[in-house]
């Protein structure tokens, strides 16, 4: 077997594990709690669950149709995938046994009920579980699933019900669909599930002329949001764009509550608000102000006239210089340019506030007018002769286009499979990590080009770009959409790097982030930074407030690791750290010591560490769909992309270290949050006291119930005893009577 074949085998081995991995649309189920939540109605939308196993011969054929389904019906269904490699037959009937694996993949539909209880029997409605038996393609599955979608829509209320009971319910704004269709459209059902308990949805038919006239509706369909304004009047805002779910969501987001307020009511007027309706909701952050704060940081270095040759001209990457005088305003496009380029460039400014500095700017820097922006291209040798100067009337868009034009590409282009295999095999034998950009457009993304030119990156990586690669190769490498970067490397000890490549040594992953230099370089740096041999200076920060979360997970690093622990006051009474007796330490202290050991083993890699009292901040558990019974737990969190990955297994040093390293290298199973994690401002002492009282009350109720059950059991046993004695007495009486009859009969015979 030659090296090229080995490489392909290695890729296939790695991509079998990566089926559906790191995708926002097809979410992995990795615990029984997650599948139980779907089964028991813990999600509002209809769920499509795909069970698969890499040993099934049909597995490679399902990826594209499932992605097609997820993309075409995003927002309509929640689509989950279950890798049966991680479940037994006892846990999930489709998994575990080799005979059942042969029948995979299997698709199940979980349809939650539209109402909690049956209006006639008053019994709770259950989730319908439907096994899909058709062909696995987007059209067939959607045709089967759509009729079972739950609907949380109030259909065709009367004008009286509408005015007295629906519009008067003030917890939610109302979304009205005026339609000429007899059935509720699937799109409106989907929206009612997405915004359940954040908006209330009402459907009015064309035949309801009294309501149609009241709202002055002439076109169908018409979508509008209605609410009571400050003057106590009903105000309506009509939706004017295309009837596409993503566009409608952008419109409805302006009116929806940020958090759910549970209000169950019928249109006859009886409704009851949950506790959450009493909470005060914080206003959303002003994004524009936050962006301005981010731009006005200290990353712009002042250019010293006497150090120009030793600083700016010695930088390898792109440099943007902002030159202005006291008289002239700063260049209006400098901050927008800096925001768009981000870490793709270094930034300097030069204030020409003396005649000498003006002369330096004109003669040495080549500035002809003020204010101006000068761009220095990549590579040190090109810096001194740069002629790229832009006056005050040039836009940041024009400057970026020119930067894109003057930045060449140093990755190796590939045009056929044979060359691709040869280059990849050669790079792996050299010990390089291969970064393969699969793309379709002639122009390679700027972030990838800049990375391919970096001296430090060239030492560690081999950059390849493959335009219009064959579909079969894309499927083998797990790529379903381009542009995308596949990463292939050889996992082998240093002493074995010169030995022939073995299939099991070749591993792969994918970079799924944006191809900006900022995001992509952070990913590359993960492979370059080595764990420190000594303890890192990093600390494990307790995250108590939303600001703490942003400081730990957003400002310091794109990737952070968070331990979810029980931080109740009694567990915070720590003993001496140097005490070797683990029994004298609380569970929380032991868990934090384990976490600290893991942090030291990871060293100075570009990640941060924190922990949250998840019993106090139960809203975090709810957002992550993790139960309190699963504490302690440990997650990877990427706030910028709203990604997280949760630990499976024991909370010990070995498991946490392995999970952390895999997370850093992008090898964990990624799940996507609908929004960034948000911490509520709790007084945790009060929260724990409240929880403690609730538990004590629950235990008292349980004891009371147990006592009652014991009393009932004693009464039942006593009744059973009395019945038994009565039956025994009757039997005894019958036997006695029978003996007497026999005795009389015998005497007659004797006579």
UniProtKB/TrEMBL annotation:
Residues 276-285 have a biased composition (Polar residues). Residues 727-737 have a biased composition (Basic and acidic residues). Residues 1-18 form the signal peptide. Residues 531-659 form the PDIA6-like C-terminal thioredoxin-like domain. Keywords: Signal. The keyword Signal applies. Residues 274-297, 727-751 are annotated as: Disordered. This is PDIA6-like C-terminal thioredoxin-like domain-containing protein. InterPro entries: ER_Co-chaperone, Thioredox_PDIA6_C, Thioredoxin-like_sf. It comes from Tetrahymena thermophila (strain SB210). Residues 738-751 have a biased composition (Basic residues). Gene3D superfamilies: Glutaredoxin. The keyword Methyltransferase does not apply.
């Amino acid at each position: 077997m030659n090296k090229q074949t080995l490489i392909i085998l290695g890729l296939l081995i790695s991509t079998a594990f990566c089926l559906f991995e790191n995708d926002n649309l097809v979410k992995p189920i990795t615990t029984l709690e997650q599948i139980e939540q779907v089964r028991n109605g813990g999600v509002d939308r209809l769920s499509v669950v795909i069970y698969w196993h890499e040993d099934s011969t049909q597995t490679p054929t399902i990826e594209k149709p499932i992605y097609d389904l997820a993309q075409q019906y995003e927002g309509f269904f929640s689509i989950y995938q279950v890798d049966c490699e991680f479940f037994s037959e006892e846990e999930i009937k489709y998994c575990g046994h080799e005979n059942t694996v042969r029948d995979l993949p299997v698709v199940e539909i979980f349809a939650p009920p539209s109402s909690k209880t049956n209006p006639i029997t008053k019994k709770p409605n259950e989730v319908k579980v439907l096994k899909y038996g058709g062909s696995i393609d987007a059209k067939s599955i959607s045709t089967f699933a759509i009729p079972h979608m739950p609907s949380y829509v109030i259909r065709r209320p009367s004008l009286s019900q509408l005015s007295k009971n629906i519009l008067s319910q003030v917890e939610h704004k109302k979304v009205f669909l005026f339609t000429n269709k007899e059935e509720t459209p699937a799109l409106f059902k989907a929206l009612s599930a997405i915004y359940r308990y954040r908006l209330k949805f009402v459907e009015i038919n064309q035949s309801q002329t009294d309501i149609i006239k009241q709202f002055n509706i002439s076109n169908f369909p018409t979508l509008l949001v209605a609410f009571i304004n400050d003057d106590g009047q009903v105000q309506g805002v009509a939706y004017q764009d295309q009837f596409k779910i993503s566009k409608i969501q952008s419109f409805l987001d302006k009116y929806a509550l940020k958090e759910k307020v549970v209000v169950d009511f019928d249109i006859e007027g009886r409704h009851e608000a949950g506790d959450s309706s009493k909470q005060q909701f914080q206003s959303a952050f002003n994004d524009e102000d936050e962006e301005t704060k981010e731009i006005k940081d200290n990353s712009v270095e002042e250019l010293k006239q006497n150090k120009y040759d030793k600083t700016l001209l010695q930088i390898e990457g792109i440099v943007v210089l902002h030159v202005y005088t006291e008289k002239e305003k700063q260049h209006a496009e400098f901050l927008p340019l800096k925001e768009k380029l981000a870490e793709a460039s270094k930034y300097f400014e030069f204030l020409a506030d003396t005649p000498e500095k003006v002369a330096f700017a004109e003669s040495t820097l080549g500035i002809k007018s003020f204010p101006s922006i000068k761009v220095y291209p990549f590579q040190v040798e090109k810096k001194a002769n740069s002629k790229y100067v832009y006056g005050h009337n040039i836009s940041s868009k024009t400057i970026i286009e020119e930067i894109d034009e003057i930045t060449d590409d140093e990755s190796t282009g590939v045009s056929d499979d044979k060359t691709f295999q040869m280059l990849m095999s050669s790079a792996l034998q050299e010990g390089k990590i291969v970064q393969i950009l699969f793309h379709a457009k002639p122009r390679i993304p700027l972030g990838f080009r800049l990375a391919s030119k970096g001296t430090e990156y060239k030492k560690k990586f081999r950059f390849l770009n493959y335009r219009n690669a064959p579909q079969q190769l894309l499927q083998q490498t797990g790529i379903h959409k381009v542009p995308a970067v596949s990463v292939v490397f050889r996992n082998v000890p240093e002493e074995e790097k010169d030995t022939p490549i073995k299939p099991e040594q070749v591993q792969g992953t994918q970079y799924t982030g944006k191809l900006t230099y900022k995001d992509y370089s952070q990913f590359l740096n993960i492979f370059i930074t080595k764990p420190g041999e000594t303890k890192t200076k990093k600390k494990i920060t307790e995250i108590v407030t939303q600001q703490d979360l942003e400081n730990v997970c957003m400002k310091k690093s794109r990737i952070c690791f968070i331990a979810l622990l029980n931080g109740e006051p009694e567990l915070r009474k720590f003993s001496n750290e140097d005490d070797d007796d683990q029994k004298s330490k609380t569970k929380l202290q032991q868990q934090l010591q384990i976490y600290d050991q893991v942090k030291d083993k990871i060293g100075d890699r570009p990640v941060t560490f924190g922990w949250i009292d998840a019993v106090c901040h139960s809203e975090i558990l709810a957002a992550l769909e993790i139960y309190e019974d699963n504490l302690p737990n440990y997650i990877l969190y990427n706030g910028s992309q709203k990604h997280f990955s949760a630990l499976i297994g024991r909370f010990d040093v070995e498991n946490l270290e392995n999970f952390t390293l895999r997370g850093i290298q992008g090898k964990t199973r990624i799940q996507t949050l609908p929004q960034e994690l948000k911490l509520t401002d709790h007084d945790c002492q009060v929260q724990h006291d409240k929880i403690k009282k609730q538990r004590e009350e629950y235990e008292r109720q349980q004891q009371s119930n147990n006592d009652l059950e014991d009393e009932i059991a004693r009464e039942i046993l006593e009744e059973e005893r009395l019945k038994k004695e009565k039956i025994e007495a009757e039997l005894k009486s019958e036997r006695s009577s029978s003996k007497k009859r026999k005795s009389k009969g015998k005497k007659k015979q004797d006579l």
